[in-house]
Specification:
This protein has 226 residues and is an all-alpha fold. The protein contains nine helices and no strands.
């Protein structure tokens, strides 16, 4: 590959990364806005939650990579995208709620998008596969964790649902594809499809990770009367 071809490929990767990052921001912002709206927050609260959810994972990623200030705070496109998504959710609330499980739908989209972009950015900055895998997962689940904490819910990532593992699958496909020389667009859409499909099917069919408990709830405690 000559210098011109390498420059064109790098520019294409950068444009794809920027598009996917903003698409993930939009998807997570909608999921945050819908969840906040369901909790009867006011307009400012909905926008605040939407922005925090949309940019939370990306901020965590950038801080871990040493990118300061994080892109989610320093670049206006992220704020504008999150606020537009929140405004759309409030203005077209009936349309959004007609979608089957809207929070789950947009959360699943954002999960795959951010898993891919987190891994991509780590690789573009020269980090190894381990860093790319972990930060891909952190980028994907960070926004959902922030959303659930703000809305006083147990974060989905701490439950038995297939959530973080789906993000890890997407990041792994992205990293493996980059190492094997697959074209960026092909491996990206494969990773997105795998993550979304795994997440959505797990919810539809009730797939869960195994849970291990040391408590024996069916047996009475020693020394307890009765």
């Amino acid at each position: 590959m000559n210098v011109h071809e390498f420059a064109v490929a790098s520019l294409s990767d950068h444009r794809l990364f920027a598009f996917l990052d903003l698409a993930g921001t939009f998807a997570f912002a909608i999921s945050g806005a819908v969840a906040a709206k369901d909790r009867n927050l006011d307009g400012f609260g909905i926008m605040a939650v939407a922005f925090t959810v949309a940019c939370g994972g990306g901020v965590m990623r950038d801080l871990c990579l040493g990118v300061v200030p994080p892109a989610g705070l320093s670049e206006w496109q992220y704020l504008a995208t999150a606020l537009c998504a929140a405004a759309l959710t409030m203005a077209a609330g009936r349309l959004v709620t007609r979608l089957a499980h809207p929070v789950i739908l947009f959360d699943s989209l954002g999960l795959g998008l951010f898993a891919v972009t987190g891994a991509q950015k780590s690789l573009l900055l020269g980090h190894n596969a381990e860093v790319a895998l972990l930060l891909g997962m952190v980028t994907a689940v960070g926004g959902g964790v922030v959303r659930d904490v703000l809305l006083n819910r147990v974060p989905v990532v701490l439950k038995r649902e297939i959530y973080a593992s789906a993000a890890l699958v997407a990041a792994a496909i992205e990293v493996a594809g980059e190492r094997l020389g697959w074209t960026s667009s092909w491996r990206t859409w494969l990773a997105l499809g795998a993550c979304f499909t795994l997440r959505y099917l797990s919810l539809h069919y009730g797939w869960n990770l195994p849970r291990f408990s040391g408590r024996q709830e069916d047996q009475p405690d020693e020394g307890r009367p009765g």
